[in-house]
Write a structure and sequence with these properties.
225 residues, alpha/beta, Rossmann fold, 6-stranded mixed sheet, 4-stranded antiparallel sheet, 36% helix, 25% strand, globular, binds adenosine-5'-triphosphate, ABC_transpr_LolD-like, nucleotide-binding
C-alpha cells in the first residue's frame, strides 16, 4: 500500500432480493491519500451512499477489497471491523444523529468512550478542545437539542474528529444547512482534517461544495465515469 488512507478495489454490491435485486456497485476502485478531500457526486440512486457505507465498514461488499491500515477488511469479522471503524474512521451525516438529551461535550466524548483508551479527564479535555476548535467553546454544556442546525453539525464534526481518525466519511454533511452555514461547516471540516493529515471522502449534491474539493469522482449507475 502506498501512502493511502483508504483504498478499495473492484467493489461490487447487490441490494434487494428476487426481482427487486439491483446491481448497485460495479467494480468500483478508489484510492485516497491523507490530507486530501475527495467528493463523490452523481445522480440520485447511482450508488454513492452504498459506496460510503462499504468504505465505512458499515456494510459488506459482494466482491472486492477495502484496504485500511494495511489490511483488507472487506470480509473481516464484526469485531475486527468495529475496532477499525472506532479507531480509523469518523462519520459525519446529513442528519447528525447526536443524542439530543446529552450535552455537546458528552456527544463528543462518546466515540472516545467506545474506543476506551483515555481516562475520563483526558476525554473531557479533548472534547472541550475540539468544541473550542469548532467555535462552540462557550456551549459545551448545552444539550444537543438546544443548539441550532449549524451548531449541531459542528458538534458532529467535533465528534467525528474525537479519536483522530485517519479517514472522515461524510454523507451530505451540509445537506440540511443554508448557504452560509454550509460553507462554514465545509471550511471547518476541511481545515481541521487537513491540519491533521486526515483524508475526507464526502458525498454531495451541492456543486459549490464539490467544486471546492481536491478530487471529484463523478459516479453513474454504480461506476465512476
Ligand atoms: N435495501 C435495498 N434494496 C434494494 N435496493 C436498494 C436498497 N438500498 C438501496 N437500493 C438501491 O440502490 C441504489 C443506490 O442507492 P444509494 O443510496 O447508494 O444511492 P445514492 O447515489 O446515494 O442516492 P442519493 O443521492 O439519492 O442519496 C438505488 O437505486 C437504490 O434504490
Amino acid at each position: 500500500m502506498k501512502n493511502e488512507a483508504i483504498r478499495c478495489a473492484r467493489l461490487t454490491r447487490y441490494l434487494g432480493a428476487g426481482d427487486a435485486r439491483v446491481h448497485v456497485l460495479r467494480e468500483v476502485s478508489l484510492a485516497v491519500e491523507p490530507g486530501t478531500v475527495s467528493a463523490i457526486v452523481g445522480p440520485s440512486g447511482c450508488g454513492k451512499s452504498t459506496l460510503l457505507y462499504l468504505l465505512g465498514l458499515l456494510d459488506r461488499p459482494d466482491g472486492g477489497e477495502i484496504w485500511i491500515a494495511n489490511e483488507n477488511l472487506a470480509q473481516a469479522g464484526d469485531e475486527k471491523r468495529t475496532q477499525v471503524r472506532n479507531e480509523h474512521i469518523g462519520f459525519v451525516f446529513q442528519f447528525h444523529f447526536l443524542l439530543p438529551e446529552f450535552s455537546a461535550l458528552e456527544n463528543v466524548m462518546l466515540p472516545m468512550r467506545k474506543l476506551g483508551r483515555a481516562t475520563p479527564a483526558q476525554m473531557t479535555a479533548r472534547a472541550a478542545q475540539l468544541l473550542d476548535a469548532v467555535g462552540l467553546g462557550e456551549k459545551t454544556h448545552r444539550l444537543a437539542n438546544q443548539l441550532s442546525g449549524g451548531e449541531q453539525q459542528r458538534v458532529a464534526i467535533a465528534r467525528a474528529l474525537a479519536n483522530q481518525p485517519s479517514i472522515i466519511l461524510a454523507d451530505e454533511p451540509t445537506g440540511n444547512l443554508d448557504v452560509k452555514n454550509s460553507g462554514m461547516v465545509f471550511d471547518l471540516l476541511t481545515r481541521l482534517a487537513k491540519e491533521n493529515g486526515q483524508a475526507i471522502i464526502l458525498v454531495t449534491h451541492n456543486p459549490d461544495i464539490a467544486g471546492r474539493c481536491d478530487f471529484l469522482h463523478p459516479m453513474r449507475d454504480g461506476v465512476f465515469v
